[in-house]
Description:
Elements: H1 9-12, H2 23-32, E1 35-41, H3 49-57, E2 69-75, H4 85-96, E3 102-109, H5 123-132, H6 145-163, E4 178-179
Helix pairs in contact: 5-6
Amino acid sequence: MAPCSGCYxxxxxxxxxxxxxxxADILQKMIDADVIVLASPVYxxxxxxxxxxxxxxxxxxxxxxxxxEFYYITTMADEEKASADTTLTCFRGYAxxxxxxxxxxxxxxxxxxxxxxxxxxxxxxxxxxMGRHVPWPCNRQPGGMLWAQLHQxxxxxxxxxxxxGCGAERINSPSGTAAL
Length: 180
């Protein structure tokens, strides 16, 4: 996905972006979602470039992204939870631009550097429990199915953290109302 070029083509073309990639679909899912989960590994005390590109590219239709519940998830090698503070500030900075945004949960998985290391931490259970409290209809399946998917995405995020991959993924929830 291309980063925003700041050309404002979108402002004169009904929110369409000059870059023709997956962002139009992702942005529509964000607009349609009740819940947005922002997740990123901590890269030099900030979010990944890929997630930053997603956030910046919402400028095309940013006023349509409103009334969302936000959950934040980050993974990092550092054991000191305060090392995630600026990453969480980036998440919250985006949410501050969303009319009607409500922060519902934060998960920091620290001390996870090696692929799969998050599996052996309390973060997996915390993610599952956090998801059990997502209100219906978003969480249509008993037992937190949406967050069981998040469980898997948290594992994938840890693998990507090591390989330098993308920190933004989409969750295809049963109701289609969550984006990551």
